Amino acid sequence: MSLTVRPIGADEHLAFVRAQRSVSFLQTPAWGSVKTEWRSESLGWYDGLQLVGAGLVLHRPVPRLDRYTLAYLAEGPVIDWTGDIGAWLEPLAAYLKAHGAFAIRLGPPVRTDSWSAGQVKEGIASPDVRRLTDMPSQVDPVGAHVTGWLSGAGWLSQSPEDGFGAGHPQYNYEVPLAGKSEDDVLRGMNQLWRRNIKKAAKEGVEVSQGSVDLKAFHDLYVHTAERDHFTPRALGYFETMFAAMSAEDPERIKLYLAHHEGELVAATVLVRVGGQAWYSYGASSTEKREVRGSNACQWAMIRDSLAAGCDVYSLRGITPTLDADDSHVGLIQFKVGTGGEAVRYVGEWDLPLRPLVYRAFDLYMTRRESVRRRGR
Q1: CA dihedral 361, 362, 364, 368 (to 10 degrees)
Q2: Which of 135, 158, 175, 315 could bridge across to 348 with cysteines, CB 3.0–4.6 Å?
């Protein structure tokens, strides 16, 4: 197989995405419009005249060396990862180097391992288990193939021990939906989740959709950030995100709002592409947490994902820690209550194309992270 890589238009890129069952929303043309601080480019892989693969590339310039960029394909590209990977990635590297990239960073949308909800629960309870990787897993041979090829071809893993790096998380929590009914999904949840969903309904929590209420969502989101000690995104980011993604597909992004007696108590953002749905952002009030608005929002999103025929509902990133004394374990405990499974992906990998520039960029990022940590 001899493939060529060249730019494609947004319409052609979107048509290719729509023909696939599973594509990350980070690989849609609209995502390039959301990430306004990066220059975006849609690339296509051609076998003769046929478009057989596509990728959204975000170009980040090097400080003081603007003619060079880091070419980033988050959770992509959308190619066949099961066969000759070199036939896909070698022409990509040649194209990007010729157009000023000093390195490529990509995150293949390929699993390496998974652990059931029962395993995760047992691991948290066991004094001998500290991490997901301390337990046996369901191994995906495609993930092993991709990891082995990238390592052998000189790509550098960017996935840290905690699973969270500069890009997107390597570990995620996902609820399989294919072939399941609402009752099936409910039965897979733990007793606390089922009870909280019922309590929200009994308390009269009402969940509605409404992107026009982005300001209300953002106010609650900022409140959540202050309470939980993270840096919130600006309202303008969400306005851009909803405008760009809704223009591409009116069903792409939805805002869910949970009200109790007229008060907004929780809000979430759902993104859907083809057969996959993602819980992307969430916010909740400190008051009235007992009415379980967050659980009501999650259940509404899961039900809508089932109705849309999705195969997977993703609750996004987790850390691999199962140590009961680790502050991060609460996140996985919350998500494991939905049933489903913890999943490790191949993670993000870099290919230096201009080693000297790459080393300078790596040093810059290391220093910036050090400053950021000192400023916490």
Answers
A1: 140
A2: 158
Query: For the chain, what is the radius of gyration of the CA atoms?
Result: 21
Two structure tokens written together for 171: 């570990």
Bond into 77 cis (ω within 30): yes
The contacts of residue 40 (CB under 8 Å, 6+ apart) are: 29, 31, 32, 33, 56, 57, 58, 59
Q: Where are the alpha helices (DSSP H) in the chain?
A: 10-18, 29-34, 85-98, 117-125, 141-152, 182-188, 191-202, 214-228, 235-248, 293-307, 329-336, 355-374
103 contacts 358 by C-beta, under 8 angstroms: yes
- pLDDT at residue 164 tops 70: no
Tell me the per-residue pLDDT of 327-368, one tens digit each, with 9 for 90 and over. 888 889 999 999 999 999 999 999 999 999 999 888 887 887
Main-chain dihedrals φ then ψ at residue 282, nearest 5 degrees: -145, 155
The tens digit of pLDDT for each residue in 17-70 reads 999 999 999 999 999 999 999 999 999 999 999 999 999 999 998 777 778 999
184-240 residue pLDDT tens: 999 999 999 999 999 999 999 999 998 778 999 999 999 999 999 999 999 999 999
- The half-sphere exposure of 177 on its side-chain side, counting CA atoms within 13 A, is 22
Round to whole Å and give the CA distance between 14 and 20: 10
pLDDT in tens, 104-149: 999 999 999 999 999 999 999 999 999 999 999 999 999 999 999 9
pTM of model > 0.85: yes
Asked if the 112-138+171-345 domain carries CATH number 3.40.630.30, the reply is yes
Which H or E run contains 104? strand 101-106
CATH among 3.60.10.10, 3.40.50.1970, 3.40.630.30, 2.60.120.1680 for 4-107+348-374: 3.40.630.30
